[in-house]
């Protein structure tokens, strides 16, 4: 074997090891996308871990360095794939051309099944989306069924999207918006379906971009939440899904899961070919954990699963000036990752501290708002 061939073999071996390690650490995170649902330890008034505690953790710093190294490697791979005009890039382009027209119909059916299922299963509770998102009112179940029905017909898409928006906003009126920051992907689905209905061209460009941004933002937010509330994930891991622990310490497992989630979400947002690969990895891992869930938990993940399916099959609509900038080298990408994660972590602290205060101050104003008449008073 030639020296060049040997070097290529070694490089492929290193890549395989890196991919295997990434999948090993990614597996746990996929089963707990809705960590608030899986644990009884989640309470909105619980104080998050301090930034000092995070930065003083050697495990956190070590995982941060590993994540930055992986991101740098991914950026180099993205650049080489784009420059070479490889068959893989042609495959992705063909997949995008075929999948884009089908994205909205597929997502509409998935979300319709989701709403019909949660309406029937949670009909005797006050859940808006998932069990921990409360929204009392006798109109909730009929609205869910109407949304499900509307999504199945083109003429009903816009009314269904309006109903989805109402279901998204009403719990925030009652409980504060902070809790719903874990679920902005639903808002992304709503925007995408509405834009696609109004203009398929806008849906295929702006709509898919908004969907990608909000799905990535959803995973970024939940990943950071794992760092700041490790007990939530650890409790769910030990009590509900011990088979995923892989012999690791729950605290380390939680940190690693958070980094995998944040890293994949970052690539989903800023990658080129890697953006679709990241979505496919997240989709495969979530689908692989479905046998560990009961039927209702699996159905309730349909919007997330099919959103990832759409993003895996379609190219990143982020402007090329962002994804292909000449200065967008691995070091720049790593710096952006550091700034983004630290900035979002600070934003999480601010949301935790100020959202309840703002909600309390606006309680009297909310009581005058029309949404109040639809069920329940804002808590005083």
From TrEMBL:
InterPro entries: DoxX
Keyword set includes Transmembrane: yes
UniProt protein name: DoxX family membrane protein
Transmembrane segments: 54-74, 106-123, 143-168, 210-229, 250-270
Membrane topology summary: Multi-pass membrane protein
Subcellular location: Membrane
One Gene Ontology CC term in the entry: membrane
A Pfam entry, by short name: DoxX
Keywords per UniProt: Membrane, Transmembrane, Transmembrane helix
Main location: membrane
């Amino acid at each position: 074997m030639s020296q060049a061939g040997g070097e290529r073999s070694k490089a492929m071996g290193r890549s395989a090891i890196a991919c295997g390690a990434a999948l090993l650490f990614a597996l746990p995170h996929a089963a707990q996308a809705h960590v608030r649902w899986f644990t009884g330890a989640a309470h909105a008034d619980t104080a998050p871990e301090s930034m000092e505690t995070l930065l003083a953790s050697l495990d956190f710093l070590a995982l941060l360095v590993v994540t930055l190294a992986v991101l740098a490697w991914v950026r180099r791979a993205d650049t080489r794939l784009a420059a070479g005009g490889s068959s893989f890039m042609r495959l992705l382009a063909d997949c995008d051309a075929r999948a884009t027209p089908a994205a909205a119909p597929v997502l509409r059916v998935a979300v319709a099944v989701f709403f019909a299922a949660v309406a029937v299963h949670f009909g005797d509770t006050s859940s808006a989306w998932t069990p921990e998102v409360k929204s009392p009112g006798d109109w909730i179940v009929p609205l869910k069924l109407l949304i499900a029905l509307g999504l199945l017909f083109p003429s009903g898409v816009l009314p269904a999207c309006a109903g989805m928006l109402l279901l998204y906003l009403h719990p925030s009126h009652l409980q504060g918006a902070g809790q719903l920051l874990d679920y902005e992907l639903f808002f992304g689905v709503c925007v995408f379906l509405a834009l696609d209905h109004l203009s398929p061209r806008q849906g295929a460009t702006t709509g898919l971009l908004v969907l990608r941004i909000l799905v990535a933002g959803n995973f970024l937010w939940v990943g950071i939440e794992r760092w700041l509330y490790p007990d939530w994930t650890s409790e769910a891991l030990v009590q509900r899904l011990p088979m995923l622990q892989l012999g690791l310490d729950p605290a380390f497992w939680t940190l690693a899961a958070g980094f995998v989630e944040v890293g994949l979400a970052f690539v989903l947002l800023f990658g080129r070919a890697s953006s679709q690969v990241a979505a496919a990895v997240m989709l495969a891992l979530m689908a692989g954990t479905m046998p560990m869930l009961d039927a209702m938990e699996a159905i309730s993940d349909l919007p997330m699963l099919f959103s990832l399916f759409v993003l895996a099959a379609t190219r990143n609509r982020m402007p090329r000036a962002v994804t292909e900038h000449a200065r967008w080298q691995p070091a720049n990408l790593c710096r952006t990752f550091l700034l983004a994660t630290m900035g979002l972590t600070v934003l999480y602290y601010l949301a935790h501290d100020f959202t309840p205060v703002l909600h309390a101050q606006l309680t009297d104003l909310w009581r005058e708002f029309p949404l109040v008449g639809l069920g329940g008073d804002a808590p005083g």
